[in-house]
């Protein structure tokens, strides 16, 4: 049993064979997939996908830091209306990306703060993206956590200080298949440190395919490769990682058992 806690099934890479992708996920013993929608068109597609696979594919919505410059009061109103009219299990992905800097850093910080506030107001888990922005991510999480913050650092890159701050805030740490890459020792070291009860697994598909499929499209069934690597570095049976991460995902996102 596994759950892919972060997939982008609305991307065009899945337009032609989504049914096959989901069939393979089920064959790989995935119990659920959290589908992340990051703009209006993606939200519409996510709603249709969730309706086609009820109780199996769940939806999260938010504004990525790349698109922070597009945030207005209407953006927030649109998100709130969608969440009111549709079952949503998470808010995000949100956060900071200082690698590409596609939106001004100040605007990224503003939108990140606002979405953290919304997540707590709506009692939804925050799905947090942080790339080359650990210090500011830590500061904003600490300042905006009013005691009701819950969520996950997705696609975790291994920064020890960010890891510790997230754990202190009660957040989960989620690993993708980049944990299988030969040069990803810092990520594997993080997976050893982070308690299993605070660990999640994801694909972030269609990106970051496991090493064995590197260069190809990623898909939810490959999340098993993430669990296998975590089991390997922790010296645990795969079943232990599968059971724990599935339990963690169901708890965080309020998924049906």
Automatic annotation (TrEMBL):
The keyword Hydrolase applies. A divalent metal cation 1 binds at residues 6, 8, 93, 204. It comes from the Bacteria. One of its GO terms (cellular component) is cytosol. GO terms for molecular function: DNA nuclease activity; hydrolase activity, acting on ester bonds; metal ion binding. A divalent metal cation 2 binds at residues 129, 154. Pfam families: TatD_DNase (PF01026). This is Hydrolase TatD.
